[in-house]
Amino acid sequence: MTIHQSIQHRTDVIFDSLVRLRRDFHRHPELSGEEGRTAAVITNYLKELGLEVYKGIGGHGVVGVLRGDGTGKKIAWRADMDALSMEVNDDQLFSSIHNDIHHFCGHDVHMTIALGIANNLVHHKEDIKGTVFFIFQPSEENYQGAKAMINDGLLDLIDPDEIYGTHISPMPVGLVASKPGFLFADYKKITITFREPAQETGLEAYTKELFVDLQNRKDESSFWDTRNLMDPEIGIGNPKTIFHDYITVRSDFEVIHKDGDIQVTSMVSASSKAIMDSIPIKLRDKINESSYKALLKHIKFAEKGLLYSTQRANIQNDPTLAKNAIRTMSEIYGDDHAIPLYGVIPDGRGDDFAYFQDKIPGVYFLLGGSNFKKGIIAMPHSLGFRVDEGSIKAGVNYFSTLLLEQTNK
């Protein structure tokens, strides 16, 4: 039996216990900053596995440390812990004990997968040359937990070479996917400031039109229907996807007349960092060709946004690690299970895992949780959110294999 066959066998052995664990998390969801019970369950599980455990990091954050039997790379795996405030009818047999707090984003599954990976790798400790850190992060839903853990000394406690994490997605169960660079579009608020002319010259209308002209997707485009993200012909899994190289512009402008200036602000999104960074340059070039050139004061990314601020980090996968990770899992589990993505999701999603990526090169994966034949659609934050629990087995297998391979490189 190969090591990876042994990993799959171990996952089969512990699968039923992992399902029970997931359902316990699901029944007892806790909001951001209130994850005390969740942290206690995680802490006890990790201690029973024999890991070094640290708790109370950045709130209710927990870290487990698995040291292998040799000298290898130090790899971190992150799972988020908090739940959502939602008024929904959760009619599952293991539904939440609360009417208005639910794990309708899949964090219960994420934690269970992380604990399953820890269980599996402890069982194969003699095959691990390096060190694996398991980071259980609070307060993801409010985008505060990762920064809180970092500010509380997480990276003084552990010093990983790489970091990985995943999120349940509406892809079919059994699929795992990722890509270099952005997985989600970045959103920034941009302000253009002019000296306001003494007489009305159409400057405000001109500036709004500048922003509107940035958008490179027509109103009638299939791009706007997010159901097309999964389309085999134009979706994010096809090299010919329509969800790439785009800029979109929100229609609600903010206009301020102050101290003889006029400031016009818009929220823009872009599918890559390079495109986002180019937007102020594009705007300046256009203005320099206009009659308003002499009135321009500055163009800048604003600190406070209509939706997000420029301080909101965005997922930015390390190109080499992302390609290698998908290749590693596809070679072992098949290229019909681990697939590369080509498009960038444009509907405002994000994850503060990005703050870890600011410090450590890493990769964020999408893990399929849907079973369309059973009517199970794992669309996070949706009222009908459900997860095929087979995704737990898939996640534990794929990521145990990945972490083992990475620590030994």
TrEMBL record:
PANTHER family: METALLOPEPTIDASE, PUTATIVE (AFU_ORTHOLOGUE AFUA_6G09600)-RELATED (PTHR11014:SF63), PEPTIDASE M20 FAMILY MEMBER (PTHR11014)
Keywords annotated in UniProt: Hydrolase
InterPro entries: Amidohydrolase, Peptidase_M20
Annotated protein name in UniProt: Peptidase M20
Transmembrane domains' residue ranges: none
Pfam families: Peptidase_M20
Gene of this entry: abgB
